[in-house]
Amino acid sequence: MDIDEVRKAANRRADATSVRQLSRETGINHTTLEKFLAGATPFAKTRIPLCEWYLGVQSAKPPVKVADTPQRPDPASHLEALLADLGAEARTEARIRIATALSQAYARMGRNAPDWLYTTQ
């Protein structure tokens, strides 16, 4: 997730309400939140609730018209494009390592890994 987009949304919200209100909404200490809003790079402990707040704000927006909806990128294809310059054996090893790391990240968040993660090209 692009943390700069989260920061822009958080700054808009803080401007519309207050930093303390945003602090209540995100569950982040207002001093830490002020540092983030000013441009500090957040630690994971801060980044996770910020991203969750951002996703909640985004999901609350009215749906976009179908005609305006861009084609959703295919993550498996993007992964293959990133690995394309590797030889077959190295590509397979890299794909396994990346899939393992992503699976563990999803598990830590209490979520199931997406199906595309297990597709092979």
Strand content: under 5%
User: Based on helices, strands and strand pairing, what is the structural class?
Assistant: mainly alpha
What is the CA–CA distance across the termini?
25 Å
Low-confidence stretches: none
Number of strands: 0
* N to C succession of SSEs: HHHHHH
Average pLDDT works out at 83
Using only C-alpha atoms, the radius of gyration works out to 18 Å
* General form: elongated
Portion of residues within helices: 55-70%
Number of helices, where a helix is a run of at least 4 consecutive DSSP H or I residues:
6
Largest sheet: none
In short:
Helices cover 64% and strands 0% of the residues. It is mainly alpha-helical.
What's the arrangement of secondary structure elements?
Layout: H1 3-16, H2 19-26, H3 30-37, H4 44-60, H5 75-83, H6 88-108
Structure overview:
It is a single chain. This protein has 121 residues and is mostly helical. It has 6 helices and no strands. The chain has helices at 3-16, 19-26, 30-37, 44-60, 75-83, 88-108. It is elongated, with a radius of gyration of 18 Å. The protein starts with a helix and ends in a 13-residue tail after the last helix. The model has no long low-confidence stretch (mean pLDDT 83).
